[in-house]
UniProtKB/TrEMBL annotation:
InterPro entries in the cross-refs: UDP-Glc/GDP-Man, UDP-Glc/GDP-Man_DH_N, UDP_ManNAc/GlcNAc_DH
Location of the UDP-glucose/GDP-mannose dehydrogenase N-terminal domain: 115-223
Taxonomic superkingdom: Eukaryota
Gene Ontology MF, one: NAD binding
Family, per entry: Belongs to the UDP-glucose/GDP-mannose dehydrogenase family.
Identification of the protein by name: UDP-N-acetyl-D-glucosamine 6-dehydrogenase like protein
PANTHER family found in the cross-reference section: UDP-N-ACETYL-D-MANNOSAMINE DEHYDROGENASE (PTHR43491:SF2)
Pfam families (UniProt xref): UDPG_MGDP_dh_N (PF03721)
Length: 360
């Protein structure tokens, strides 16, 4: 018998037992940091969850969504960003958090207050009850700097399977310009979904101002499905203090601002190139996985091939005051690596670049 707002049955907001779920990736798997292949660096997108008693996907509910009725907002991908979306939207609406990780869903069910309007599930079938869908899955960079949209495509496939005509679909994940249209445009037109994009604006560690007080940019594919923008504004205006509509998703995608950070010193310590127990590498990889900043590193003794997932700064041509000032919002010096002139960092903060020294 489940306790708390974790759904373990096909019936929404009901308690009971269910068949054991099987996932392509174990729910207790921890991300490992390795440096050889793309698939080892980023775990592949898990396949759609299957249950022992569900050999066939259930058909989506046949009835249409009526936007004048009380919404049920589904958040697909309940990591750092998704958790904040669930928390904020649950202030005004019933919310269903969906993620492929059963462990993650149970954890959130235990940590959210008992009187929350949020429920959590790892069963795609439960999405058939939703009227609005917010996609907040990771969109990571591959070593060749192209965007891995596999998580996003998987989320859209689930929506295509279970969402009803008249549903509202909003991409909150960070995407390249034009990606919302290319992935959602045809589906929205064929299925009658109101669709758009709203770039997430949650920063790790920031508590003030609260997320609902930060102006929220929204956009709609009105040229594909008229009324999309108004449907999205109607939902978001009840949650955020100020909603800022823009003309189309491409504008919203361009307005996603990601600060640029340079990590100086990626080896273990001064004069060494090996990466074991490197504080600089630990910092760089942690920043990458937040998806909040663009990360670059510099270390004359470490080659790009050693850390192919993160772009290396060319110290021979770009380690100078003017180049650093133009490219970066913040520079973190893990240690003073050999062959770098650290005088170029003098006066950098006066030019608007924050510099943190993790060493003497």
């Amino acid at each position: 018998m489940a306790t708390g707002p974790y759904l373990d049955t096909p019936e929404l907001f009901a308690a009971g037992s269910s068949p054991a779920c099987q996932f392509g990736v174990p729910s207790d798997r921890k991300l490992s940091w390795v440096y050889s292949t793309v698939d080892e660096y980023y775990p592949t997108t898990p396949p759609t969850e299957l249950c022992e008693s569900d050999e066939e996907l259930c058909e989506a509910a046949s009835s249409s969504v009526h936007l004048d009725r009380e919404p049920l907002v589904a958040v697909l991908g309940v990591g750092y960003v998704g958790e904040h979306l669930v928390s904020n939207f649950a202030r005004k609406y019933d919310v269903l958090g969906f993620d492929v990780s059963e462990a993650r869903m149970r954890h959130l069910a235990e940590t959210f207050p008992s009187d929350t309007r949020a429920k959590f599930t790892c069963r795609p079938k439960d999405l058939a009850h939703a009227t609005h869908f917010l996609i907040s899955v990771p969109t990571l960079l591959r070593p060749d700097q192209t965007i891995d949209s596999s998580f996003l495509r998987s989320a859209i496939e689930n929506i295509a399977t279970y969402a009803r005509q008249g549903s509202v679909v909003v991409v909150e994940s960070s995407v390249a310009v034009g990606m919302t249209r290319s992935l959602l445009g045809t589906l929205a037109k064929e299925r009658g979904f109101f669709a758009g994009m709203s770039p997430e604006r949650v920063d790790p560690g920031r508590t003030e101002p609260p997320a609902h007080a930060i102006p929220k940019i929204v956009s709609g594919l009105d040229d594909v499905v008229p009324g999309s923008l108004n449907a999205i504004i109607r939902l978001y205006s009840q949650v955020f203090d100020k909603v800022v509509p823009v003309s189309r998703p491409e504008v919203a995608e361009m307005m996603k601002f990601r600060p640029s950070v340079l990590v100086v010193g990626i080896g273990f310590k001064r004069g060494q190139s090996h990466l074991a127990n490197s504080p600089g590498l630990d910092l760089a990889r942690s920043l990458v996985l937040t998806e909040k900043v663009e990360v670059t590193w510099v270390d004359p003794l470490v080659k790009q091939e050693a850390v192919p997932q993160i772009k290396k700064l060319d110290e021979t041509s770009e380690w100078n005051s003017e180049s650093l000032r133009q490219r970066f919002n913040m520079i973190v010096v893990a240690f003073r690596q050999e062959e770098l002139d650290f005088q170029v960092l003098e006066g950098m903060e006066a030019k608007g670049v924050r510099v943190e020294m993790w060493c003497d």
